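Morning. Coffee machine broken again, so started the prediction first thing and wrote up yesterday's gels while waiting. Chain of 482 residues, entered below exactly as on the submission form.
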Amino acid sequence: MSAVAPQTTQSQGQASDQQGLARGAIGLPGVLMQSITTVAPAIGMLFTIQFIASFAGVAAPLGYLLSFVLVLAIAACVSQLARQLPNSGGFFTYISRTVHPRVGWLTGHLMVLYMPAATFTSPIFLCVLLQQELDGSKLGWNIPWWVIFLAITGVVLTLMYRGVTISAKAMLILGLAEIAVVFLLSAWGVVDPGPGGLNLEGFNPSNTSTHGLWFAVVFSVFALSGWESAAPLAEETAEPRRNIPRALMGAVLLMGLLFTFCAWGLTLGWGTDRIDTLVSSEELPAFTLAKQYWGALWWAVPLALLNSCIAVSIACMNASTRMWFSMARAGSMPSWLTGLHPKYRTPVNALKLQAAITLVVGIGLGAWWGGSDLFFVSGLLFTLCASWFYIWANIGVIRFFTGEKRAQFNFVAHILLPVLTSVALLYVCWQTFTNPAPTGRGAWALPIFLVWAGIGIAALLILRARGREQWLLKAGEEVYEG
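Came back before lunch.
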């Protein structure tokens, strides 16, 4: 299958809307890989397994499994809105239309801590690791991490500038390559396990504490986050009412199963009898296992991570720039952000904003906090932001299908599932941030979230007091009828 829609579809879409995004430019494979590469299989698995094992120990695979079930239920709810309200605004449009435009705008405001930030958090962590590996290897190359980061960002921006079709092809190739490497390394651990042998101890809840398991679920939700990034590509997707929901559910199913299996395989390969040494390892455990199993070919793992960084940056930039374009088109952000490239139909001004955030904020925080702390704080922040989006989307599902779409109402899909997943998300967040609260740099996550949310609420109050929110009240009205 091609990652892009047939040429006739693309041509017809562009002919019908020369002023908008490239209509129908990508098909189901392309938009599915948008979600999968935002999850970033290599990064999401190989970077988080050590964090999650530090909380859940041998039961790390259980953390991934529980988060998979939770996220799958959330995706089933969000898919309902994606089918009904296809739009490049994603959660901004869904929540504006089904709850209230003010909540939708605040969602877009909080998104700055999520998708735009994801373009530099994981890549910087990898670049720091690569610097250490290159300097410590026989090569003895001491290349500063920020040089590697600039090179990755340059590749990503070039692909983004050339349009969604070429970026979709790049994501397809890079995504499949990283999945293959991660799966092969994990399967090797099942076939050739370390001390402890082949067992199912990873799924036994008695092997961890309750709080450790909740923390594991939080970081597993973070590992799976990004599956919803297909939604902002609705206006550039062929048959979006059909393909966007399929991409959302398909990404969660594929990545949830992959992560659960890989967490099991990697912990087996390391050895369940010595899981404490996995947690304390100064080298990324995936590097150690690859050297043990593959010898000189171990470089396939850092190359897979490099692939993953490029792919996740493309996917996150796709999502954030389309959301900003949609918000600007609705009047809730400066109209300058609606600027499109005359040939490639990419939101070039939104891309410039994203590039500035990636380079200035990314390099600044990377130099200040370092790769590990930046990754840890971002994991907590992403989970808080994602919980906000998912819970309000759940509320939107309930309101939408008990009101405007009452004829399609289903108790399980539109009441039970949204309520249960919202309660689960609230409970997981509460347990993580109160029992006990994160320490060190991790303690910054909740204040950053609350301060940024407070700034957004203050802005809304000022606009309302000045009677300058007419543009806001129209948010969510536009739906792409593709």
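Residues 387 and 425 are 6 Å apart (CA to CA). Going to sketch it on the whiteboard this afternoon.
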